[in-house]
Amino acid sequence: KYDFNEVHNRLGTYCTQWDYIQDRFNKKDLIPFSISDTDFIIPKPITEKIFEVAHHQIYGYTRWNHHDFKSSITGYFERRHHTHIEEDWILYSPTVMYSVSLLIRLLSQPHDKVLTFEPMYDSFYTVIQDNDRQLVAHRLISKDGTFEIDFDLFEKQVQECQLLLLCSPHNPTGRIWTKEEMDQIIKICKKYQVKIISDEIHMDIQLRDRKHIPLLSYIHEYDELYTAASSSKTFNTPGLIGSYLMIPNEEVREKFLMHTRRKDFLNSVSIFGMYATMIGYTQCDDYIDQLNDYIKENMKIVEEFIKEELPDFKFKTPDGTYLAWIDARDVPYTAEEIQDALVNVGGIGIMKGEIYGGPKYLRMNIGCPQSKLKEGLRRFKIAMDALYSK
Predict the structure, then answer these.
(1) Cα 309 to chain centroid, rounded
(2) How far is residue 282's CA from residue 279's CA, in Å, rounded to a whole number?
(3) Ramachandran category for residue 57: left, alpha or beta (phi over 0 → left; psi -120 to 50 → alpha)
(4) I want to staple 368 with a disulfide (CB 3.0 to 4.6 A). Which of 30, 102, 372, 390 is the partner?
(5) Strand partners, 133
């Protein structure tokens, strides 16, 4: 059994979340609940394999295009998500956003329109606009503590777009799309021949009864589907570098390979990232299950604390992810005033919803030991008490 309560000091490790907190909040020495990695040590089997590989002391050019790497992914999708993936569809990529960026360029033309749901992961803005595409935002409807798609509006928007960029499960709201929603998304996009790229990096964290439905489970209904994913979010291994994507379309797959090999020269995999994926997806289901249980408990702590101590805020445990999307719209202060209190009175770094296109929300990464979470919530309360007492 993994001890997710164990505290590990990440300071002094060039850690983006802890060592470079000032970059996001203009102040040092805050307790961070910001960038979405976790404060948990990685699964023991991955650690043991890394030690074994490191002990070999030769880290030469390394191939990813082999059965061991690709079958770890197909087996994982079959076992955890009941979805059949062909090994031939699988390609290596250094990061999910690299895959998304290149797929956007391969599947559309400059000035084409790309539809995505808002609020959204902040890199979705830049990956669309900086690739000279036009972003079309579909604002999700906030309803009863969750978020819904307006399918009448969605269909109108789809008609003017060439691509849908899907985040599944959704960052930052934590929505896991239902089968009915996925059915509708596929039906409408197929009707207007709009290609779909799905970022599924958060798929392992499922907190309620709803289960993640991989986009590629619909490949027999519509063939313009593309998925980018990684095990790094689940196992806390982004620093090892490595992700993968799945492209059923052979022509697009060959174009992706040609670009990575001949233009970007990504011909060798990160050996540690490759092993992290292979071992994580074949030997670490127990870690995934226990992590889900722990995140559920963390979400419950946040939900109860906000209800009892911060009644002007609203929060309900999401379907998935370890990101708490906290509604501050009823708080009688501006987003800037709330953020100033959190940083300068509470000494905590929680991301502003405005970054994600969600005014008067907060995105709090709760992938951390409960001692850190409870201390953060205590400081949250102190900050708000100070703001209200002005």
Answers:
(1) 29
(2) 5
(3) left
(4) 372
(5) none
- Single-letter code of the amino acid located at 329: R
Residue 200 has pLDDT above 90, yes or no: yes
Strand order in the sheet with 348-352: 31-33, 348-352, 361-365, 323-327
Amino acid at position 13, single letter: T
- Read off the pTM: 0.96
Do the beta carbons of residue 227 and residue 198 sit within 8 Å? yes
* Residue 145 in this model has a pLDDT that exceeds 90: no
Among residues 168, 149, 147, the alpha carbon closest in space to that of 157 is found at: 149
Number of residues that make up the chain:
390
pLDDT range class, residue 390, cuts 50, 70, 90? confident
Give backbone dihedrals phi and psi of 153, rounded to 5 degrees, phi first.
Answer: -65, -40
Residue 131 structure tokens: 């690739």
How confident is the model over 204-221, as pLDDT tens digits?
999 999 999 999 999 999
Q: Distance (Å, rounded) from C-alpha 329 to C-alpha 337?
A: 13
| Angstrom distances, CA of residue 97 to CA of 139, 228, 261 | 22, 8, 17
